Amino acid sequence: MRNTKQNNPIMKIGETIPLLIKRLGINGEGIGFHQRQVVFVPGAIPGEEMSVIITKVFPNRAEAKIKKVFKKSKDRVTPPCPIYETCGGCQIQHMSYPAQLREKRDIVVQAFERYTKIHKDKLNVRKTIGMDEPWAYRNKSQFQVGKIDDTVIAGLYSSNSHKLINIDHCLVQHEDTNIVTNKVKQIIRDLNLPIYDERKQTGSIRTIVVRTAFRTDEIQLVIVTATNELPKKELFVAEIKKRLPQVTSFIQNINEEKTSLVFGEQTEGIFGKDTITEHLGDLRFELSARAFFQLNPEQTVNLYNEVKRQANLTGKEKVVDAYCGSGTIGMWLANGAEEVRGMDIIKESIMDARKNAEKHQIKNAYYETGKAEKLLPKWVKEGWEPDVVVVDPPRTGCDPVFLETIIKTKPKKMVYVSCNPSTLAKDVHMLISNGYKVEEITPVDMFPQTSQVEAVCTLVLK
Asked: 40, 165, 188, 203: which could form a disulfide with 194 (CB 3.0–4.6 Å)?
């Protein structure tokens, strides 16, 4: 007979308990243990002793809020952002930057402890590569537009709610994006333009998107509308030109769907160029309104240089750039390789990669549309065997079929660029169970003040 008896929860909602914070979680919350059960506490820092109030209880964990801190961490600082606690866009502004870098390394270590069988003494995780100036690093803002009484607001939805938080000055955004967004809000108010109401599905103006190029100072403004027509278009354009002469590309994107996605499929140029130009090192990129590009250009150079360091190419290697997108990582490595071959399932990305390679006169790069798990075996069958595979997958990690393909084709080295330590560790576990070993892992802080951490991990065939 099946036992249906359930254990009573150790903690109850509303209960106050003492807690010592041991580590930082992947969402920036402090982690403590009460009677061997894990408790997550937003705003808590490792090393702090406190009393907390239990807010949620689950079979294997609990969540709590801080009631009183008895022993503060020396790493606790006053968040400089006045809306830090309500906005939710950043999670760890209350920690000193050196502590952020230290704890991000530990987040990577935790993932490998949880999902792999590598002994911690044999886990070579280097120090996190940080920024000299960990503010004003984001080159793009996407702020939803709303209205409170007669005031036009634009910002982000507060964590776990549908309350729009107005953001006048985001400290992690490049100052140009703040300036342009605020002036566009004023223009929308002055012209009394109809703002989209998703509940009533009325109005037009949905989102203000601003992207700035750090190296060229070009600025692209995109207004996302729920209607085909841009309201009061001529007046709107005249005011943009008058108040924001620095805008070099003004675009309308049309999103008529009831969705949380920012962009719709239709994009129309209003004035100026359709693209802005940005540089990464010696490479130059034309960015259209919907083109993916790293949000932190300064750290992207450091990230790609770390990939190059770990790849350690001699000029004789055949390199695969899987999930290549527009080919940025492969082109970064091309001058050290015999040949680079990239693949992506998105045809437009491959077209961009070919154009980028041609524009930069990179003659040893080849790009093909398709899945890596199909193209890699095809190339091997044709006699082209890769020495190094570089992969930069989405947050969900590598496709299992792709990993099986790597195991079958047996490249000597794999450099894995990850934006999610958990899926990185899970994928690494599969690879080390099939003939590979981890050489080194380097965390890279692409998004200071947030809990997100990237990592570059190199695996070599035993």
From this structure: 203
